[in-house]
Amino acid sequence: MFIDEATIRVFAGDGGNGCVAFRREKFVPRGGPSGGDGGRGGSVYLESSENLNTLLKFRYNPEFRAERGGHGEGSDCHGRDGEDLVITVPVGTVALDPATREMLWDFSAVGQRFLAARGGRGGRGNARFATSTHQAPRTAEPGQPGEKRELLLELKLLADVGLVGFPNVGKSSLISRLSAARPRIADYPFTTLEPCLGVVALDEERSFVMADIPGLIAGAHEGRGLGDRFLKHLERTRVLLHLIDVAEHSGRDPVEDYATIMKELVSFSPTVAAKPMLMVASRVDAAGDSHRLFTLREFCRAEGLELYEISSVTGEGLEELKRALWKKLAETPKIPAADDRIPATFRNPTL
Ligand code: GDP
User: What CATH topology corresponds to 161-331?
Assistant: First the structure.
């Protein structure tokens, strides 16, 4: 299983201080105490969302601070409460204590909220300290500090996009060219086939996981080397990207390549083969007279397949491809599965 992880620090807002003030009005001698309470500091929450696929955004920005509470003011004015901060995390994320690895929360469904750091209480103003015997108190409380905490987030990554195509058509080059970061690879069930996997970022908020489907050709569907778990992993892939080499020297027929791969894919896994698919003409920088590219364009038009033309060497077409993939993913529902969370032995303490 591929695990993405990030350590974040969350700081709730401090409470505002209570105020010491006395009423001063014309014709009201000895106005009583009127210092208002400080506002509550904002709390920090984590909330699960299905619009995120990775923890990548936390590498850009690992610190989160909620607003502090406003101080109390004279004339019994209560300080403003600090605004809460809600940080979205992908469904499937597990929050742990980094020191003990104790599980704090398991986001198993959309819309769950976990209070990560509680905002400090506001201090009371002197108006609250008045008693019959002590009518002009000069005491007010300071606000309580907000909680702060370090959290380790872990997420089992699922390949959103699976790459298919003949060997040497540029699959791993594409992944490394598009990848923003490489996730930690842990507990991999087989060692002979190193899958190539990368996290692709459109911006800080939007990212997805792209994985090569290794060894598709050469009898992969007979199960050689491919563990059941990896196959399951791929079955959760939502969109396929089919790369066809249009480089001049390859001397192959793009339409034939397409048919061969599709046939192989169906025998490998009909579920995987039935996924929505985008076509890619790869290595267009080396297309020469573009004969193969024209053939592929014609074929895709006739078959109603969406074609993107790219080069991982020059970078041509990569932005458009990224955006098209994101759009396709947004249109394609996620496949729910019971085992998305890690590790299985954990139990959600408060659900
Ligand atoms: P894979 O087997 O499908 O993963 O293919 P690779 O990514 O390993 O690429 C195979 C070969 O094609 C390598 O020598 C790459 O340097 C080369 N290659 C990959 N992408 C491009 C490209 O866009 N243009 C050119 N000219 N060569 C490329």
Answer: Rossmann fold (3.40.50)
Q: Whose CA is nearest to atom 6 of ligand 1?
A: 170
Pocket of ligand 1 (CB under 6 A): 165, 167-173, 283, 285-286, 311-313
> What homologous superfamily is domain 5-155 in, according to CATH?
GTP1/OBG domain (2.70.210.12)
pLDDT in tens, 52-76: 888 888 887 899 999 999 898 888 8
> With contact defined as beta carbons under 8 Å apart, do 128 and 32 qualify?
no
pTM: 0.72
Residue partners of 345: CB distance under 8 A and separation at least 6: none
* Nearest atom, ligand 1, residue 175 CA: 7
Query: How many Å lie between the centroid of ligand 1 and the Cα of residue 168?
Result: 6
Residues 116, 121, 125: CA angle, nearest 5 degrees: 170
Q: Give the start-to-end residue ranges of the domains of the chain.
A: 5-155, 161-331
- pLDDT less than 70: residues of the chain: 1-2, 26-29, 180-195, 214-234, 335-351
Ligand 1 midpoint to CA 202 (Å): 23
- Residue-wise pLDDT tens digits, 96-145: 999 998 889 988 888 999 999 999 999 888 888 888 788 778 888 898 99
